Amino acid sequence: MLPNTGKLAGCTLFITGASRGIGKAIALKAAKDGANIVIAAKTAEPHPTLPGTIYTAAAEIEAAGGKALPCVVNVREEQEIINAVDKAVKTFGGIDILVNNASAISLTGTLETETKKVNLMMDVNVRGTYLTSKTCLPHLRKSRNPHILNLSPPMNLNPMWFKNHCAYTISKYGMSMCVLGMAEEFRGEVAVNALWPKTAIHTAAMDMLGGSGIEKQCRKTDILADAAYCILTKPKSFTGNFIIDEVLLREEGVKDFDVYAIAPGHPLIPDFFLDVETDTTAMKQERHGASQAVKEEKKLSGSQHEGPGGAKVDTESLAKPLSPVAETFRVIQGAMSEEYVRTTQGVFQFELSGDEGGTWYIDLKTKAGSAGFGKPPVTADVVMSMSSADFVKMFTGKLKPTLAFMSGKLRIKGNMALAIKLEKILGQFNSKL
Fold first, then answer.
1. 21 with 222: CB under 8 angstroms?
2. 3-class secondary structure for the chain?
3. What is the tens place of the pLDDT at every residue in 350-365?
4. 130 given a catalytic annotation
5. pLDDT digits over 324-358, tens only?
6. CA torsion angle 228 234 236 240 (round to 10)
């Protein structure tokens, strides 16, 4: 953990989306120095599923040693931003730091993203960041060491980061373009930087995206709070940077990163927009594993017919093992129950590439359920595209669906909530596979 130095004592931070998660963590770190925090967020009344309000965050900030000004702000509404900035200046005498943390997310493809979701992401992520920066800048220019910090990624133009969630990527890169432009526009006056995590961070949003158990693959918000604190205490000449939390903290001398882990020693999910520096040995092993699976599939000979639920079965020699994908579906078919169908109510279609490619399905909606080769008996709610080798890994617990999706190995079309449910179902199937 990075120790506080007291450098933010008396500074005023305007933080959007500070009622919970990363925004609140940054606020609490600054509060320990005795900073003034403007909590600019929407949640005034308790949310049915999400923790915290601007008032509970204010109480925590004051308990940590800071002064808090809770303001109801929807960054989609320009007047609400203006009112909060005016109130901040009247209360604390100015604004020294702006943290653009508020963000909206929908990990859906172009045809699956409703227009209202597109509008939400563009309004909150791009327009909200731009307008909040514009409104704060006249006050920031009067500060001794002003900073704007956007929670947005380096602009990685690898198409992999666009193909599965084009609108979300555009909106996050819009925030990053604000950094690129404003850092140059206000060079020498106001520092403007971006901060992004190397790994997934455990927040309420991540729980919604990844389902139960996802937290073990995440780090705490503390790592971003420490990295933000490090940036915001640097001189204003430190500007135009796209910073990754772990990289910066290593440069600052932090060696123990287990303190930031929810489950120390557990593998972590790399965050979006970062091409993972993959271990070449692991890559070779993965390729070898995939080629072995292909070789085994090619060994299969003789006639095949559709067995229970449509799974391919070798009729010539029952002693011969089924290929990995067919064996997986055979076990799934055998594990079907009315309870699975009742609690899931979804039809999953798998478009697999590779030697044993083609269309496969799991129907957890109709009657007692079924699984096998070919299209499902009714229209699929979710279509998942991936390689047959990754599919087998996913169903045997060697590859988490969340990690497969975030690393581009799995493409999802359709009902995301059902796709998330599949991770829970896999946990129950894994013991049988």
1. no
2. CCCCCCCCCCCEEEEECCCCHHHHHHHHHHHCCCCEEEEEECCCCCCCCCCCCHHHHHHHHHHCCCEEEEEECCCCCHHHHHHHHHHHHHHHCCCCEEEECCCCCCCCCCCCCCHHHHHHHHHHHHHHHHHHHHHHHHHHCCCCCCEEEECCCCCCCCCHHHHCCHHHHHHHHHHHHHHHHHHHHCCCCCEEEEEECCECECCHHHHHHHCCCHHHHCECCHHHHHHHHHHHCCCCCCCCCEEEHHHHHHHCCCCCCHHHECCCCCCCCECCCCCCCCCHHHHHHHHHHHHHHHHHHHHCCCCEEECHHHCEEECCCCCCCCCHHHHHHHHHHHHCCHHHHHHHCEEEEEEEECCCCEEEEEEECCCCCEEEECCCCCCCCEEEEEEHHHHHHHHCCCCCHHHHHHCCCCEEEECHHHHHHHHHHHHHHHCCC
3. 999 887 788 989 998 8
4. no
5. 888 888 888 877 788 888 888 889 999 998 877 88
6. -50
Active-site residue (options: 130, 168, 173, 340): 168
